[in-house]
């Protein structure tokens, strides 16, 4: 939803609740505090890890000064690997009131040495 739809006046984007992406990964975000901080759980549908996928904790924050289409970021500490993923994005509301999260992410694997540093990070959107 790149260029976006016109937004209805007063419609606010709420991160709290259950979300699912087009790959089937699921995320639940708890209520946000006054500072815009939140926590939740993430269950990925895709993984390159040898271990079984487990629900993993997430922690993040969102700008609270403009709740109409806020920017946000959160970190997932994977419970089944030595990897961490950071997500950044924005919540959009279309003219029917449907909310969509658009994100980009960085996945950081554990490097064996400093020489492997650059190979340990993957960027996707």
UniProtKB/TrEMBL annotation:
Where in the cell is the protein located? Secreted
Q: Which InterPro entries match?
A: Avidin, Avidin-like_sf, Avidin/str, Avidin/Streptavidin-rel
Could you list this entry's UniProt keywords, alphabetically sorted. Biotin, Disulfide bond, Glycoprotein, Secreted, Signal
What are the protein's GO molecular function terms? biotin binding
Which GO CC terms are listed, alphabetically? extracellular region
- Superkingdom in the source lineage: Eukaryota
Which Pfam families does this entry report, sorted A to Z?
Avidin
**SUPFAM superfamilies from the entry?**
Avidin/streptavidin
| Disulphides | 13-91
Task: Report the sequence similarity comment from the record.
Answer: Belongs to the avidin/streptavidin family.
Stated name of the protein: Avidin
- Organism source for this protein? Chelydra serpentina (Snapping turtle)
């Amino acid at each position: 939803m790149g260029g976006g739809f016109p937004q209805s006046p007063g419609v606010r984007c709420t991160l709290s609740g259950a979300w699912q992406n087009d790959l089937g990964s699921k995320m639940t975000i708890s209520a946000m505090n006054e500072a815009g901080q939140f926590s939740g759980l993430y269950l990925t549908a895709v993984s390159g890890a040898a271990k079984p996928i487990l629900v993993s904790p997430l922690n993040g924050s969102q700008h609270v000064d403009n709740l109409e289409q806020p920017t946000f970021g959160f970190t997932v500490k994977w419970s089944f690997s030595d990897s961490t993923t950071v997500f950044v994005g924005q919540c959009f509301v279309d003219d029917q009131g449907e909310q969509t999260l658009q994100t980009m992410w960085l996945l950081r694997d554990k490097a064996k040495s400093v020489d492997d540093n650059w190979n340990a990070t993957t960027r996707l959107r």
